[in-house]
Amino acid sequence: MTNILIVGTGALGTLFAARLSAAGNNVTLLGTWPEALTALNQHGARLILAEGSELRAPVQATDTPANCSQVDLALVLVKAWQTKRAAQQLAACLPATSVAVTLQNGLGNREILIEALGQTRVILGVCTYGATLLAPGVAQLGGEGLLALEDTPRSREIQTLLQRAGFQVNLVADAEALAWGKVIINAAINPLTALLRVPNGELLQRPAARALMQALAEETAAIAQAHGIQLPFKDPLAAVENVAQRTASNRSSMLQDIQRGAPTEIEAICGAVTRIAQTHGISAPLNWAMWRLIDALRGA
After folding, report:
1. Could you tell me the pTM of the whole model?
2. Is 182 marked active-site?
3. Domain containing 139: what range?
4. Residue 300: predicted pLDDT
5. Are residues 25 and 85 in the same domain?
């Protein structure tokens, strides 16, 4: 039995907790949301599957890092704006022989974790699974996806562990390229759905929204290429529209955050892209506008 720590008690944290516990692992979640901690401890992690059935598995949940010292692997699934706190918590409790895998949205999460834990103890991953939080400790699967992990000496055992829990996992030589590919998709879809208050597929039905989505994808891809990134796809618009179509009924995580009145990850997506563009002497007017509009929507 593997002792797994999941940092984060949101939709994806609940999804991973339910599957990994059901596969026979000992799962602990570390978070700060009291209602989620209570629900997870009392009722386990509950995952509503596509056909309406429910997967429920026992887990432990805590807000105290000292209770998480006996773990073999940590999965970091908090929002990007919470990464610094998560890194400090892991530095205090993660055994020296254990590693942390970041499966988060946006740019800069790996660097924050490396600063706290060291280069060899952090693995970059990219997650395309979707989930919606229905209630504390209850998530609904938004469709199957893919996990990609950078290929390190520890990655193969983690791949096997996740595959046994029902995840599709690939090891890749350049996970940063995939992370940028996801950022392009997130930058083109998430802020628009949050501003318009629509599910992903609606962007394809509105000509003006579709044109903005295309322009955002192309602008972000150009900045990635200027930054030396070999993108995982040749046509950014086709990649973005494919995701919007496949997840047509999904509410993006940014829309869910806005509807809950919670902070968003816009800083780590469009904000990070804007700052990287500036380092290369490139303007990023659309990413800048999305960054500021989402902040303005929250009153920031």
Report:
1. 0.94
2. yes
3. 3-173
4. 61
5. yes
